[in-house]
Write a structure and sequence with these properties.
The protein is mainly α and 204 residues long. The protein has helices spanning 4-11, 54-61, 88-96, 98-107, 113-119, 131-145, 148-161, 166-181, 184-195; strands at 44-47, 50-52, 64-68, 72-74, 124-126. 49% of the residues lie in helices and 9% in strands. The longest helix has 16 residues, at 166-181.
Length: 204
């Protein structure tokens, strides 16, 4: 049986040189459970049942959360004599606001899917019966219709902007836009729009 220490060790992010991770990612995104923002691809948490405690922590680090109508959420910490673990005190207020975060963390009450959607804890709620198909349809849309380079750059911008002022975020976007204009992907994206055909992005 795995101990909590074993589980935490397994989930710790690999070295920055590992291929799936952005080598330029902030140090904030190299700690236990905080490495999802350093993965240069969208990460969707698909919640189709109970999501509590550490499971909720991991879901919060995803780029977005989809729930089935059979899901249920709870922070759980305060009812176990614990605290807001692994950066939840930073993540949750950014998703649901300070007052809602305080409610969910103080009370550790159960939150049903529709309330979770209303407060911004999840993006969408799908029927349990079609949940997997609905989530996969969204993921397939991203894979087929959106520039992979754009996804990679926008994800980096969104997460880094949490540590920036508005002026710095604007300056960063202006620098990134110059790089976009130099790449083949822009021409391909414009062409498929004008020609009303499916895109064929190269990822570069």
């Amino acid at each position: 049986m795995q101990t909590l220490q074993d589980i935490q060790s397994d989930a710790r992010a690999p070295a920055r040189s590992a291929g799936p991770f952005d080598p330029t990612a902030r140090d904030d995104f190299s700690k236990t459970y905080s490495y999802f923002p350093a993965v240069p691809k969208p990460i969707i948490a698909a919640v189709n049942g109970a999501c509590a405690g550490l499971g909720l922590v991991i879901a919060l680090y995803a780029d977005m959360r989809f729930a089935s109508d059979a899901a249920v959420f709870t922070t759980a910490f305060s009812r176990r004599g614990l605290i807001a673990e692994h950066g939840v005190s930073w993540l949750l207020p950014r998703l649901v606001g300070i007052a809602n975060a305080a409610d969910l963390l103080y009370s550790a009450r159960r939150v049903m899917p529709e309330e979770a959607r209303q407060i911004g804890l999840v993006n969408r709620v799908f029927p349990h019966q079609s949940f997997e198909d609905d989530v996969m349809a969204y993921a397939t849309m991203l894979a087929k219709e959106v520039s992979p380079r754009s996804l990679r750059e926008i994800k980096r911008e969104i997460w880094n902007a949490q540590f920036q002022g508005l002026g710095e975020a604007i300056d960063t976007a202006n620098r990134d836009m110059v790089g976009s204009f130099r790449l083949r992907g822009l021409q391909g994206g414009v062409a498929h729009y004008l020609e009303k055909r499916a895109p064929a992005f190269t990822g570069r």
